[in-house]
Amino acid sequence: MWAEEKSPAEYANFCRQATEWQCHKLVARNPARFASFAALPLPFVKESIAAVAHALHSMPFPADGFAVGTAIGGVYLGDPSFDPLWEVINMLEHSALIYVHPSDNVRPNLPYPGAVQEWPFETARVITSLMSNGVFKRYPNIRWIMSHMGGVFPFLHQRVQNMVNTRPWFVGAKSAVDIFGEHPLDPLAYSTALKNVYWDTAQSSGHQFTNIKAMEGNAVSKKIVFGTDFPYQPANTGPEQSGLFDEEAMERIRWRNMLEMMPRVEDEWKKTGTI
Fold this sequence. Notes:
Blueprint (H helix, E strand, L loop, with lengths): L1 H4 L2 H20 L9 E3 L5 H13 L7 E5 L1 E2 L2 E2 L6 H8 L6 E5 L16 H15 L2 H4 L4 E4 L6 H14 L9 H5 L9 H4 L3 E4 L7 H9 L7 E2 L12 H5 L4 H14 L2 H9 L4
Parallel strand pairs: 1-2, 2-5, 5-6, 6-7, 7-8
Antiparallel strand pairs: 3-4
Helix pairs in contact: 2-3, 3-4, 5-7, 7-10
């Protein structure tokens, strides 16, 4: 919404202010506790590439990753117009991490906000967009964190896989092999197609994890990261409610998976003797 109301320069400046606030007001105060995702001013690709450079090279604490919405003005992240940005991030030695949060892209005429139902569908759309347009495959160094356990995508994953295998053109793909690899009918083909996609636990409930496990297999605990929508969701006990994870797996979900993707924070933990 903000991108539609501002010029490229105005929106880039708005995002820069948000990024700098994170760095100076949070990370600088406690670099072992806080990490930052630099806001990228999409759909403005040139300005977003400049924001990547600024976030990594012009602040006392470089950004640990980047934050984007699912779509801007009806254009989803899998659109080829965004490829130059993914190319830049894919080449980063560190910080090739993107957090994706649903945006109010589709606004049905309903008497409640998008957060109630529409956002989970928005997340499913962007996953399908990135996957079917080959972004995950072309830029293998980028790791993606999808909010809210991927929205409704885990519930629809078998439907999407069936469509890709029988009618790949439905999702804009040339063939199922392009998305799922050499064994597109394998129930665990998603573990290849989405190997760099992680799922955050914000707004999750126990039954969702059964669907994630059906996609990811027994290594699922390595692909889930803790997230919270506090104060909108006071407690987050979805992983525990599922009954699928032992204490070692819960340790990975609570902090270890995320720490492995943020080498700067990991170094800070080592300095303070936390690990």
